[in-house]
Amino acid sequence: YQDLLAETETDYKDHCQNILASPMAILGKANNFVANKEMDRLKNFLDGIRGSNLVEREDFVLLMEGYLAQEAGRYDEALNYFNRIDSELLESECLKRTLSLHLSKSDLNSALKVAKQLSEKSLAHLPFHADLLRLTGDREQAITVYKRYLEVVRGDTVTEQKLGKLYGDMGDLVAARAVFNTILEKDPQNRAALQYLEQYSS
Question: Which residues of 34-51 are buried (b: 16+ CB within 10 A; e: fewer)?
Fold first, then answer.
């Protein structure tokens, strides 16, 4: 009890000291509690946020309630919390959490919609958007998205391999071989590329 009380006091003092600090610092602290499975400390931190004058207070309360619901396996409740958040600052975090929840529920179609939103905010999310397009059967569009990403981020071997394999799965062996030959020009010992090239050359 004394240890928990000390943690509570420390968390709240930290919060008070940083009440005018960047909301991103608060987000980072909350995410750190989740990453370390320190849900009691997250609850204490949430209590501090509730009593604060933070401009984004209501949205942070919803976010942390969503974290707690997600960690407890209450996925629909967590989705409800995340979907009620209006802050542009927290939009990417909410989308990533929502994507994770849809995947946990094996709802690929809903996950695909969220992945598209994320990819429109950052190119870094394009490969996963393409993965979901492939998994949901839209292979032509998946190729388009993989290629769009690789035009900007050159040398991503993992994504190149996914593109080459998708070409192969679709029966376009010429395009598949071209992708794997490109990989081998940069990395002649790439085992996966060598194996796929052999497979698609036979």
Answer: beeeeeebbbbbbbbbee
Q: Can you tell me the distance from the alpha carbon of 194 to that of 121, in angstroms, rounded to the nearest whole number?
A: 35
Q: Containing H/E element for 100?
A: helix 91-104
Instruction: Spell out a b/e string for 146-176, using b for 16 or more CB atoms within 10 Å of the CB, else e.
Output: beebbeeeeeeeebbbbbbbbbbeeebeebb
Angle (CA) 16 18 24, round 5°: 135
What pLDDT is recorded for position 44?
95
* Tokens matching residue 7: 């943690």
**Alpha carbons 171 and 75: distance in angstroms, whole number:** 39
Residue 195: CB atoms within 10 A of its CB come to 11
* CA 157 to mean position of chain CA atoms: 20
- Residue 187, classed as helix, strand or coil, is coil
Rounded CA separation 171/163 (Å)? 13
pLDDT in tens, 63-108: 999 999 999 999 999 999 999 999 999 999 999 999 999 999 999 9
| pLDDT class of 22 with cuts at 50, 70, 90 | confident
Rg of the chain over all Cα atoms, to the nearest angstrom: 22
DSSP-based three-state secondary structure for 122: coil
pLDDT of residue 3: 54
